[in-house]
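Reader question, answered in our methods column.
A reader sent in the components of a multi-part assembly and asked whether the whole thing could be modeled at once rather than chain by chain. We filled in our standard form and ran it. Here is what they sent:
COMPLEX SIZE: two components
ENTRIES:
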Amino acid sequence: MMNFDVIPVEVVTREFVAVILAGFGNDLLPLTGDHGEEPCAKALLTISNKPMLDYPLSWVEQSGIKDVLLICPSSHRPAISHYIHSQSSSASFSSVHIDLQTFDESQELSAGTCSVLRHFANRIKGDFILLPCDFIPSPSLPLSKLLNKFRTDSMLDGPIVTTCWYEHKSDKQTTPDEWGSPAQPTPIVWDHLSGTLLYVDNPEEADKNNDELELRMTLLSRYPQAKLTSRLLDSHVYVCKRGVLDLLAQKTRFDSLREDFFPWLCKVQYQSTKQTKYATSVRIGIVIHRADEGFTVRVNNLPAYLEANRHVYETPQFVVDNSIGDFTRVEEKSMIKKSTIGKHCVIGKMVKIVGCVLLDHCVISDGAKLDGCILGNSTIVGSKAELIRCVTQAGYEVKENESLRNEKLDISDWAAQPEDSEGDMEGSTGEGESDESDESDD
Amino acid sequence: MSSSTGKEKLITDEEEVLQAVILADSFNKRFKPLTTHKPRCLLPICNAPLLDWTFESLALAGVQEIFVICRSHAELVKAAIKNSKWSKPGTGLKIVPIVTAKETFTPGDAMRDIYTHGIITSDFVLVTGDLVSNIRIGEVVRQHKERRKTDKDAMMTMVVKQSGVNHRTRSKGDSAVFVLDPETSQCLHYEAVTGYPPKKYARIPREILNEHPEVDIRNDLIDCSIDICSVEVPSLFQDNFDYGDIRRDFVHGVLTSDLLMKNIYCYIAKEGYAARVKDTRSFDSISKDILSRWTFPLVPDDNHPGGHSYEHLRGNKYIAKDNSVILSRTCKIGNNTLIGSKSQIADNAQVTASVLGQRCTVGAGSIVRNSYLFDGVVIGPNCVVEHSIIGSGVQIKERTRVERGCLIADGVVVGPHARLAPFSRLSKRRSDGDEDDEDEDDDQEQADEEDEEDEEDNESDDGDDEDEDEDEVDSELEEVEANQDAEALAKLGSDTNAIIWPPSTVNEDEEVDELEHPDNQRLMRIGDNASDLVLSDAGSVTSSESESESDSDSDGERFEGSNPSSSTTSLPLSTPSNLVAQADSAAISEFQQEVKQSLDRAFAEGHSVDNAAVELKTLRMASNVSLRLVRDAVIAGIVSRIKIMGDGAISQRKEIASMIARWGGLIDKIGGVDPVETVELLQEHCASSDRLPLFGQILAALYQDDIVDEDDIRAWHAKPESQGEGVKPTSLQENYKKCWVTGAHMIKQFDEQDSDEESEEESEADADDDDDGESGTGNPAVKPLEREHNSSKDASSSEEDSSEETSNEGDEYSTGEDGSEQDDLP
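And here is the structure of the entire assembly that came back:
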């Protein structure tokens, strides 16, 4: 089965290069906060005990693509470099050549996707696929589906981009507001008959007219049966012609691909002045993945992260309740339900864990209760502590008998500490930090 | 058991009579002056009054009781209903005319009137008096009632018909964007679209996405103006006294209201036909639709609402069956033509794509094209009538030319030797007491006697009404009569009794409804292609330089949308110059280079046309350029390869003929056939190269090889850009003009040729003419367009190219005959 897919593609090797963007993951804070001196790369956060990066990489590999340009912040380079050269990953991605490049930026002031792409334009020689490191595609959505759409369209009238949008029905179980809201769908207009993306709403338009969507009549004349929906999310996977980079070079003001560049590009499709100006006929293809075709999500916020962990083991092949990593010890009389536990964790006696994600090296002391939590690397939970719907930064320590609810537990941020810590406020900030980082080394 | 209960149910169902309300008044004046003495719903379309078509449509839909709401000329409508075949016992239809108050200026007022009359007892069908439809409305009513059971707020179902954006019966001037729920067809938003000034944005409220996350935005629906309404609809009109138009006010108001909480649904008819005659353009297109049988079973040879019987001949020609039509042996009847009984077509007359009423006469050698002649029209010999509507009893005397878009009211006489400017509107002078019209006038006066207290300031009112009352008509006529231009009147011929209605203009102070604005009305006018209006939905790939400037300006702001003069408002510049500009871009010039090489190879190595075509197709696929560019390259290749023979016209003609015979076929094998574009491009290349003198001959050669035909040359000729309008260097413009005149000459010859199959001689003659011009001055022969208006005395003043005519008059006489031309040849 697989061979049938792969072999014909191999004939035309180097047709595409995959460009994977790995960012800081600011919406996943505190999980992506620094662990002591060490940064926690978003790309290496595990989802069902596999680094997030594994998912797009294997997706790319399955479609027969050989070249990957992986772009990450320079501070993440050692960790990611170590990972892709380590035994565990190189075995699975032997056929892919990964070119790891870095860009300099700080976590606070991250560069827009456009400028990153402009910067690396000279490394991209041909058509390329741009994808984020956090896209978890459903098995029913192979990358080759997008590539084939791109190929057929370019035979007909040469699109320069094929995009992929997915429908996401979030679970009934709600995450607390404190975690940040799940990704909001963007209203888009597309033509069903030709599979063309026509309009992407963007914040600027929304600011201009918050009550109404303004659609050009030229659009509606050209595509008289357009559909408008607010159910779809952008996968941020774009199959692009090389020409996109030239356009990007011309439009130096654009910062974000999703919010600036593509909404603009949609307009080029039906606005003739722009067509003459940029001397291209543009068509933006769209592939739509419905929720009932399989679970697909971009893990770029906490609710999605929790959900992704839950869903990956819910696939029909693995009807298991939990996923527990290697070398993890669970003591007696503990109960673990619907949870993902990382490697090298220690879980004491009488512990109750329901619907949680525990990353590697967590220590849960006796009698602790965890419900709907995400614990960063090496989090320590004191005995009989009770956490409900909390997220912790790597290395965080929850004290004994502490009871927390709906919190983002952040080491550096004192204000986010629960009421209990109010008394500690008198103590110097330096003290608290050093305490926690010391303990987390265990 | 079950059968008896079924029967009971049937009986209860039957008790509910399906009611329909016809708004017989049009509430606008688009047909003026045809409608000064007659309501629009009594104008004949395909020789039956519109109202009868509407009755027929409703009868087909199973309606049993019809209320006809009439306002102006109410007595005429009443009489028409009384005489209609539907009023006879046994038709199963009950038709009740209801005369509303004079203050009824809008459909909304009429609805309020319906409410006060209290005639509506159940769900009813609301239509206008100008409907032609074969849609099964019964099915829509059933769905509507079904829906009412689950959704108490479902108040109305609008019937819309799926079509293309540019369908001929879809009015450009007055259309709409519907936002629908894909599953239930609930209408969530209604956006009226006015054609000119072009609407730029459709504004869709974001809040509808809250409840309906996925919606369809449809811009391809024809609004049939058939609404299934619930009883509460008239009362809603009563409550909201500011609702005027049913669509723009009522539907829009209900959908945007937070208080009413009522729902409106659409029924998208996939089959069937429905359209309303809401302007002269749709009058034209619906007539054509009827003639080409889209309205089956409502067609002239079957179910004709007027009760006439016609014989259907090949090519959709309909001739009255009673053997009373007299067709001369040499007359020519084109396709899509209907000829009423007792009509006569004289020798060598041509009637194409037209409808002739009863007792019409077309004189010898006259041409009637795309026109609608009501009963009793008499057209003298050697006249031309194009794209016009001619009222009943009109006499057009010999050698008169009626240009496209004219509306001539009942009883007018024009000619002889008259020339009507395009879009003239004529009506009869009142003082003119023609015997035969006297009685009719009396009738109307009687009819309208009751309707006397109409305000004079009606004009400025929103509900301007073409079906006005006699005194107002009088006052308006008086005004029109007072402002007659003697010079223009003089052109109407010596026997005329007509007055000319001024073209509609906008008074600055006056507030005119956007929809009824003259510029927008042009989109609804018969015969007006409005090519000089800038329409956003032209979707052309053209744009002016100033706009690319504004584009770059707004680029500074990153969002073009913020700039009001952004792209959609492309000027109607002709394509060639812009294409050249476009071609400057690297990708396209590279493509052109490749095409040139490919053609070079093909010519040098003598490839077959098919092989060359395949190569071109692949090239086009690879670089993704428009078909026009390919055609452009091919024509450039052919034209540039035609050698200019120094040694005389005959060898030149041979060279052209052999070149076209060998390679002409390639033009149509590149993946699409567009002969009009071919002529345009040929013109462009000839005008910008030293092969300008060859234009006529090449065109003739293309014509002979069937690459372009007569209609295409006409179509090209009719385009304003063909005359060089908008061509940038003015020197080129001159050349364009020359080509255009050459084409004009060719068309003239087509006109002269009639039905005889002498195309060969003709194109030969054409070529000869060109030879003559070439050998003489180096210019193609420049000749006046029409012989008739040359001979007519008053042709000189208004015609734009009159200067050219006079300057070349000498030319014409020297090259008048084929024989003399032959003499000129070396």
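What stands out: Chain B touches chain A through 56 residues (CB under 8 Å). Residues 1-14, 432-468, 536-584, 757-826 of chain B have pLDDT under 50 and may be disordered.
Send us your own complexes using the same form.
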